[in-house]
Amino acid sequence: MSLREFGFGKRSLEGKILEESVSLQAEIMKIGNRPFDISRMVQNAVTNVICSIVFGSRFAYNDEKFKRLMDALDRGLSLNFFGQLAIFFPTLRRVPGLGRGPKMIQNDLVTIRAYLREEMDTHKKTFDPNDIRDLIDSYVRETKSRENDDKTTFTDDYTEWVLFDLFIAGAETTSTTLNWAFLYMILNPDIQRKVQKEIHSVLGHDQRPSTAHRAQMPYTEAVLTEVARIGSITPMGAFHATSRDTSFHGYHIPEGTTVLTNLWSVHHDPEHFPNPGKFDPGRFLDSQGQYRRDDHVIPFGVGPRMCLGKQLAEMELFVFFTSLLQHFTFKLPEGAAKPSTTGISGVTHSPKNFELVAEPLA
């Protein structure tokens, strides 16, 4: 089932994103011209959108409960490649240094689930079928309507896992994509200026961005597509499994086999994307400067099992990116070395820590 079926249509979601973008701008303004790491602020903002949908309210960025949740999310998603192998091949946990990682991650994920369970219990105690406040209330209503259905999948455990997936997938991938976007903006000031010129020509300096403006901003759309391609936030995509025995290119694949899709190889195929390591939004513009969609850019996967949060993620990326570049120019700190574009592979492919300066636009 989609968010729309639970009362969260495009307009409702966009309102929550716009509200959070204003709060994010205010937090950045407080810093002034000092260098800072934007990654945690962006993660706070994106996670707060999820909180607004799930809990019906957002948190102040310095709220202690929110900070503990963010810390658990950070640690829970920091497992490197070898640690991930230890999850699939438990015998590797006997190798010194590999067993500790999965155990720590498991503890943090238990913390997140306990937090969600606490919120669910509170919502059930205060539930009013005539006043649906958020996604948890929507699930409580749906669960109650199916109480007499022995075959229902709407249980407390099911709801908890859905909310857990929404936090893990919805918060981390979007915030990491935005981190790559701002990294490439400070490394390519000419591209940043072109984006700002387009934003200001469509919105001016005061009108709030909306996804309805996307069609009027082909260059901005091309930049975000190139960020998704070159960053390849989830290099191996989401985990899938075969529902029955099948064959592929002569290989027999039994039912229940875990299947990973190598999105990185698609996004960095030199035959389709010449010089794939170069950041070049022009790949996605035609001779008239209009946006040209490319089916080889598949950050959300493909087919009926592609990422269910695609619509929300695309809305967040566009609104946060355009609203910040509408009001700030992002630069390298004076005298700072250029940050590396070689990423760190954990649960997601993220940039190494870097600092920038946000210069307010008049």
From TrEMBL:
Keyword Disulfide bond set for record: no
Any single biological process term in GO: organic acid metabolic process
Pfam families, per the entry: p450 (PF00067)
Annotated GO CC locations: cytoplasm
InterPro entries found in the cross-reference section: Cyt_P450 (IPR001128), Cyt_P450_CS (IPR017972), Cyt_P450_E_grp-I (IPR002401), Cyt_P450_sf (IPR036396), Cytochrome_P450_fam2 (IPR050182)
Listed cofactors: heme
Keywords: Heme, Iron, Metal-binding, Monooxygenase, Oxidoreductase
Binding locations of heme: C307
GO molecular function, one term: steroid hydroxylase activity
PANTHER family associated with the record: CYTOCHROME P450 306A1, CYTOCHROME P450 508A4-RELATED
Protein family per UniProt: Belongs to the cytochrome P450 family.
Official protein name in the record: CYP2U1 protein
Organism: Branchiostoma lanceolatum (Common lancelet)
Lineage, uppermost ranks: Eukaryota, Metazoa, Chordata, Cephalochordata, Leptocardii
UniProt gene name: CYP2U1
